[in-house]
Design a protein that fits this description.
7 helices; alpha+beta; 187 residues; 16% strand; 2 domains; 4-stranded mixed sheet
Length: 187
């Protein structure tokens, strides 16, 4: 065998060894794309059989509790015809957070998950007229009193009347109108 023949044989052997190592470790293209030896496993991988997913949510059926429905019907009669009523409005959609950066985020964080039960607004201009809270027995708890104090102060500083009504079995639309009227135009 000549020297050239021996070199060709050695080169072919080395080339074969390199190819075997590449096949074992994945191709260069797969290595560059970050898949490496995982590509073979991924080609044979199948999605696991899905079990029927448990329903994590259910409908509340109505947006208002029975007590809120009773109050809403009286409020609807009490509100002057040129006012609209929105239900369960997020405080962050009524009050704007002040400050910048982390101060803004801290202030926003205090209102983002809170809501008021009803919001009255001018039907022509959409200007906010008053926010209304219907206070049930849960408002006697310390955490709720702190929340209520915070909202009372925040709405007062923003210049938006926050009217509170005790939850009860029936309401007089005239009493509601009078209380809202007194809140809207204090003497």
């Amino acid at each position: 065998m000549t020297l050239l023949g021996s070199l060709v044989l050695i080169m072919a052997f080395l080339f074969g060894v390199i190819k075997i190592f590449e096949l074992m470790r994945g191709s260069r293209k797969e290595k560059r794309s970050g898949n490496g030896s995982h590509s073979v496993a991924l080609r044979n991988w199948e999605l696991p059989k899905e079990e029927p997913e448990e329903n994590l949510y259910r409908s509340r059926r109505t947006i208002l509790s029975p007590a809120e429905q009773t109050f809403f019907k009286a409020l609807y009669k009490a509100a002057v015809p040129d006012h609209g009523i929105s239900l369960k409005v997020r405080v962050a959609d009524i009050l704007q957070s002040e400050g910048t950066g982390s101060e803004y985020m801290r202030n926003f964080g205090r209102i983002k998950a809170k809501h008021v039960d009803f919001l009255l607004y001018d039907a022509k201009t959409f200007q906010i007229t008053a926010a209304i809270e219907l206070d049930d027995s849960s408002h006697r708890r310390q955490d709720r009193r702190e929340r209520d104090d915070f909202l009372n102060e925040s709405f007062a500083k923003a210049g938006i009347p926050l009217c509170r009504f005790q939850a009860k079995s029936s309401y007089d639309p005239c009493e509601i109108a009078e209380k809202i009227g007194m809140k809207l135009s204090p003497e």
